[in-house]
Design a protein that fits this description.
With about 290 residues, this protein is an alpha+beta fold. Among the domains are: about 35 residues, no CATH class; about 50 residues, no CATH class; about 50 residues, no CATH class; about 50 residues, Complement Module, domain 1 (Ribbon), CATH 2.10.70. About 15% of the residues lie in helices and about 40% in strands. The protein contains two helices and 25 strands. The strands form ten sheets. The chain has a four-stranded antiparallel β-sheet, with no helix packed on it. Helix 1 packs antiparallel against helix 2. The protein starts with a strand and ends with a helix.
């Protein structure tokens, strides 16, 4: 019978049903009962509208519940009715019928003796009593920390100042690096060697202009320079060509005037006419 279970139906009527458990339903057939698991339908909740699945007490199947009815939304998280949570160590929030109320975590009443001062330890919310400390004319409360030097840290503990030296981690420098304690620091650091160019010292990563066309950068003690390459200059030849043609035309006009003047005397001097004709041909060749 698979998941079916048999129970006695001597005290029940035929075909009667009941649920011995929230997720089990039984039916009587004559004097035998057959029980099956309850089949739950898919509730098809609209999660984008804030609905969520909830199984109520003494019920088997989940149901869709709107977040605006009983649950609460707080910083993107859904909290059920009557649930509590702490958004911070010093506060408590409660969800009640869709409404969130938060309050500070209650602290017991504190009364300190004359030689003690109240203070709140790190990570706690409620104050405590502790004796103060005096260090070089300054009074520190119990649990308070201070740094009297770059490499020293102190804390006041029950009226006594406890100081310790800061421990530095072991550092392995790479080639062209030196282990140096920088001003204002306690622990040494790896610093790249500087670069020297023309009597000037440059630190790692610093750039400078060697000349109008060369830029240099300091890379862990090595000067790396780059020179800009210029493309070949292409001059405009149009002006020279125009000047040549203008000169040719001017020269041609000069010869043309000479030809005209000479042609006037052609009727008298045949030789001169022949010479002038030759000049005219030269003039035409210059114009072309």
């Amino acid at each position: 019978l698979g998941d079916q279970k048999l129970f006695s139906c001597l005290s029940l009527q035929n075909s009667s049903s009941w649920r011995p458990e929230a997720c089990q339903e039984c039916t009587c057939y004559s004097d035998v009962s057959i029980c099956r698991p309850v089949h739950c339908p898919n509730p098809q909740c609209d999660f984008q509208r804030g609905e969520f699945l909830r199984i109520s007490a003494n019920k088997c199947c989940p149901e869709c519940v709107s977040s605006s009815q009983d649950s609460c939304q707080y910083e993107g998280v859904t909290h059920g009715h009557d649930s509590q949570w702490s958004p911070s160590p010093c506060s408590v929030c409660v969800c009640s019928k869709g409404s969130v109320s938060c309050h500070a975590r209650p602290c017991p009443q504190l009364t300190c003796s004359p030689d003690q001062n109240p203070f709140i330890p790190a990570g706690d919310c409620c104050p405590k009593c502790g004796k103060s400390c005096s260090w070089q004319g300054v009074v520190y409360r119990d649990g308070e920390e201070w740094e009297p030097g770059l490499c020293t840290r102190c804390v006041c503990s029950s009226g006594k100042a406890q100081c310790s030296v800061v421990e530095c981690q072991q550092v392995a420098c790479r080639p062209l690096e030196n282990l140096v304690i920088q001003p204002g620091h306690c622990c040494p650091q790896c610093v790249s060697n500087p670069c020297l160019s023309a009597g000037t010292q440059y630190q790692h990563g610093e750039q400078w202009q060697k000349d109008a066309c060369t830029t240099c950068v300091c890379d862990r003690g090595q000067s790396k320079c780059h020179t800009d390459t210029c493309r070949p200059a292409v001059c405009d030849k149009v002006n020279n060509h125009t000047h040549t043609r203008t000169h040719a035309r001017t020269h041609a006009r000069t010869h043309a005037r000479t030809h005209t003047h000479t042609h006037t005397h052609t009727h008298t001097h045949t030789h001169t006419h022949t010479h002038t004709h030759t000049l005219q041909k030269k003039t035409r060749s210059l114009e072309v």
